[in-house]
Amino acid sequence: MINQSMAEKISVPYAEALLDLAKKTNLLSETEQDLSFILSTLSSSKDLQLLLANPLIGIAIKKKVLFDLFSDKINKFILNFLSVLIDRRRIVLLNAIINKYLQLAYELKSVIVADLLTAVEFSELQQEAIIEKIKLITKSDNVKLVISIDSNLIGGFIVKIGSKVIDASLSGKLNQIAFYLNTN
């Protein structure tokens, strides 16, 4: 099993190589869209994640599944990239590689990526309001919001922008109160 830190380190060269290839072929935007589509497909299908992570399932089967799923939806060079990952037994790192690629692509385009962790799904209006506040805080015109839902927050949200964290969650406030009460 590969831990998170190791996965991030291993994913960097793959993400950088894919970014270089996308730049050389003028497919940055299309690659970003394709990888976002793959990421959303992976996150909505636990079965697909388990299939790709299972070392007992053969390379040919994994390639066939991905080809059947994505051949008419994504660029051929992305399919080839997925095939290389399967051949090198790095397909289990696909999420980390895609996330690293998107991070590098956003940096290239000067886009600020903000991770929004919420207890419940936000409406479009709420997302727009958060984006506007982040634009004010970062003094940036380009903000990409990556939304994750975590019911453990009880209520509210947490925004992570690089190394900065804004905790406006109910669980965060309760932890602050508990810490204050324990120190006094």
Brief summary of the model shown:
It is found in: Membrane. With 184 residues, the protein is α+β, with helices and mostly antiparallel strands. Helix content is 62%, strand content 14%.
What does this structure look like?
The chain is of the alpha+beta class and 184 residues long. The protein folds into two domains: 4-107, Peroxidase, domain 1 (Orthogonal Bundle), CATH 1.10.520.20; 112-183, no CATH class. The chain is built from eight helices and four strands. Strand 1, helix 7 (124-138) and strand 2 (143-149) form a beta-alpha-beta unit. Helix 4 packs antiparallel against helix 5 (76-87). The longest helix is centred in the first third of the chain and has 21 residues, at 4-24. InterPro entries: ATP_synth_OSCP/delta_N_sf, ATPase_OSCP/d_CS, ATPase_OSCP/dsu. Its main location: membrane.
Q: In the CATH hierarchy, what is the architecture of the largest domain at level 2? A: Orthogonal Bundle
N-to-C SSE string, H for helix and E for strand? HHHHHHEHEEEH
In helices, the fraction of residues equals 55-70%
Q: In one word, what is the shape?
A: globular
Given helix and strand content, the structural type is alpha+beta
Profile the largest sheet. Answer: 4 strands, mixed
The largest sheet has its strands arranged as 2-1-3-4
User: What quaternary form is this?
Assistant: single chain
**CATH class type of the largest domain:** Mainly Alpha
How many domains? The number is: 2
- C-alpha Rg, in Å? 19 Å
CATH superfamily of the largest domain: N-terminal domain of the delta subunit of the F1F0-ATP synthase
| Contiguous helical run count | 8
Determine the mean pLDDT. 88
CATH topology descriptor of the largest domain: Peroxidase, domain 1
Count all strands and give the number: 4
